[in-house]
Structure formats: structure tokens, C-alpha cells
Amino acid sequence: MARPRILVVGAGFAGVECVRRLERSLAPGEADIALVTPFSYQLYLPLLPQVASGVLTPQSVAVSLRRSRRHRTRIVPGGAIGVDTKAKVCVVRKITDEIVNEPYDYIVLAAGSVTRTFDIPGLVDNARGMKTLAEAAYIRDHVISQLDLADASHDEQERASRLQFVVVGGGYAGTETAACLQLLTSNAVKHYPRLDPKLIKWHLIDIAPKLMPELGDKLGLSALEILRKRGIEVSLGVSVAEAAPDKVTFTDGRVLPCRTLIWTAGVAASPLVATLEAETVRGRLAVTPEMSLPGVDGVFALGDAAAVPDLAKGDGAICPPTAQHAMRQGRKLADNIIASLRGRPLQPYVHKDLGLVVDLGGRDAVSKPLGIELRGMPAQAAARGYHWSALRTNVAKTRVMTNWLLNAIAGDDFVRTGFQARKPATLRDFEYTDAYLTPEEIRAHTAGASAHG
What we know:
By secondary structure, this protein is of the alpha/beta class. It has helices spanning 13-25, 48-52, 123-126, 133-152, 156-162, 172-188, 217-229, 323-341, 376-390, 394-410, 427-431, 439-452; strands at residues 5-9, 32-37, 41-43, 62-64, 74-84, 89-94, 99-103, 106-109, 113-115, 164-168, 201-206, 233-236, 240-244, 247-250, 255-257, 260-263, 267-269, 280-281, 284-286, 299-301, 306-307, 355-359, 365-369, 374-375. It has 12 helices and 24 strands.
């Protein structure tokens, strides 16, 4: 009898935790496990702003999937571009662009999220996100190149536009990105004697009336004060009306000469969700508390791609797209798949939020672990301690700690590494959001494959 085939889509926090629990809990002959991911690493996403600012190297936040002693999962190098739930087939575009079918008995949809964009003129062509390792490395090169080009220019208008930087999004990603990169440029400008430090201006804007409202009013105001003391101009209740290569127009009518627009205004579930033609909640797959897709055999979803009911909060709440929920959902879902294989009942996911940490670079941070409000160095210790402990391998922990210590002792460096090409990359170039098939294309593909098989 053939072993059951478990296919996990996505190597984020949810997918990797699910795979690791399956590897530890299933006997080698009990099931075959496969993981669909374009890269054989788990990206520790919360530390990307520190990669963009050069505090951490890219390798330190790319945690290898093959280092586990119990690693026996078959890694399919590519991205899922469609799922045919009736045929029980996942359509995968490999990194060679070859399209293959991956049959399954159980599928775990942990495809994560992509940068949420809006129909704003010029946005997708002139903005960069902060969702991938390549984007973080690109943005670092881009920001340093603006200093180099401004230093070499004799045109005052060009200088002004190259030294203005805009970050959109007052959540954790945007706030940490603006804070970390502002520290980078303020330290770097000391090595550019022809540049006036006063010309370098960072802008953080968000359509919401508060900065990081999840932290509460007191900590949100503390973060706002830290940013403004550093010289970052924070504008709330404002968004982008139009983005051009050399200027940004805000919804309040201001026009800012600018060559750097970083877009972190929220996330949307992976476009893979739309290929299932299933019910969604705020764009995420509607699932049961056990994380199964109602009415569809063998399909589970979790993490950013799923609207998992938050039973700890109740009142119809769904779990926020955070790493702590994704990791715990991954482990619980693995237990549920094992229970299904062994004929036991599934258990609902319940987890009380442990709090939030925000690293603003240097000695600045605001954190709320277990509801306790912290600022300054205690908050920094809590933030970095949490991230360090959450890294999955000892090698990753060693790299990150070494990077932190080296940066604290030696300071920043301002070398461009060559990731930036002459042609500017777009959001789509990094996140491949136009690679997915329509439901009709998926059915035609799987039907054609079955006929030829």
C-alpha cells in the first residue's frame, strides 16, 4: 500500500514548523513529506530591516532547511501556482520555469503573504517592498548608492531628491525599516564630507491616525517621540497619491522630490488563495479552528494565508499574521495531520498572544511582552532576546549574535555589495505576484496531464 503523501506549500514560520513536527513525530515509513519552496531556507522575516541597514548579513537570517538531523523532507524547488482540490494536485513552477504536478493526500497551504498594494499611479513601478531577502539587500545597496550619487552630483535639485527617503506604513515593518535605515544614513554621512547632513531627510507616513496601534497609546507615542527626536518626519492620516521615479505626491497635496519609496503598507494573502475558489475572510482562506478547509478533503491552511479563528479572543476574531501565531499553528496542524492519519480526532488551535517587540535600532526599542510595557534598553533586550531565541538553529543564533556584537563594537559599514542592477527592480520582480494560474487554467492543466499520464 502506498504511503500517504503530505505536501506542505511554503517555507515560512508556519510551513517549516509543520514540517519539523511531522519529521519528529512520524515514523519514516508512515508518510512521505514534501515541501514546495523556491529557496531551501526559512527567512526570519522580522529581522529584515536589520539586513537592509547592514547590522545583519543576509546569510544570518536565511536559516537552512537541511541542517536538521532528522531532515528527510523532499524539497521541491519552486513555487505553487495553483491547486486542483478535486484532482488532489498542486501545480508547481520550478525555479527553472518548468511546470510540474505534485499529487497529494494531504496539503498544507502555508503560502504566506505578499506586499499589499493599491491602484496608485506609479506605485508598483517605483516602490520597493520589505518582504524578501533580495528586497532587503537591494534596498541597502539603493540607499547607499543615493548617498554616493548625491555626493558626486553638482546639481542641487538632484542632490535634494536623492537625499529624501519615504517609507509608507506605520506598522512594525515600516517603523523598524525607517528607524534602522535612518541610523544607517546618519552614520554614513560622516564619511561624505561634501554632503550636508541636514539635507538627508526620512519620512514615515501612514493613513492610520496612530503609529503601531497594537502596542497601545503609551508605547505608540513613545515610538513616535523616538523617531521624531532622530529627525524622522512622521505624517499620520496621509498616504501616497502618485509615485514617480524622482518625486512622490502625498494625499495632502505635498510633492516631495524623492528617489526612494519603500512600501510596507500591509500584506495580502498569497495569490495562491484565489486559485482554490474557496470562501475567504479579508482575503484569507476561511478555515475551521482545526485549520481544515470546510467541505474539501485533505486541505489545510494556516499562517498569513488563512483566517484561523482566534479562540483565545473570541467574538469572531481571527489570528493576526504574526510569527508567534504562525509557528504555533504549524505545530498544531502537524499534530492534526498525524491524528488524521492515525484515526484520532483533530484539536482546535488556541493561543493567547504573548505580546509584541519593536527594535528601532541602536539602543532604542519599545516592547510589550506578556502585557508589560518596556522602553529603551530593557525593551531592546526583550526584542533581541525574543528574536534570538526564535531562530531555529544554533548556527543561525551564532551568526546573528556575532553580527550584533560586531556592529556594536565596530559600527556600520557603507559598502554596496552589487545587488542593485542598472535597471531598477519592481515589486513584481521580487515577489512574482503575476506567476499564478487561473482556476480554469489549473483544471485544464491537470486534466491534460491526466490524459497524457
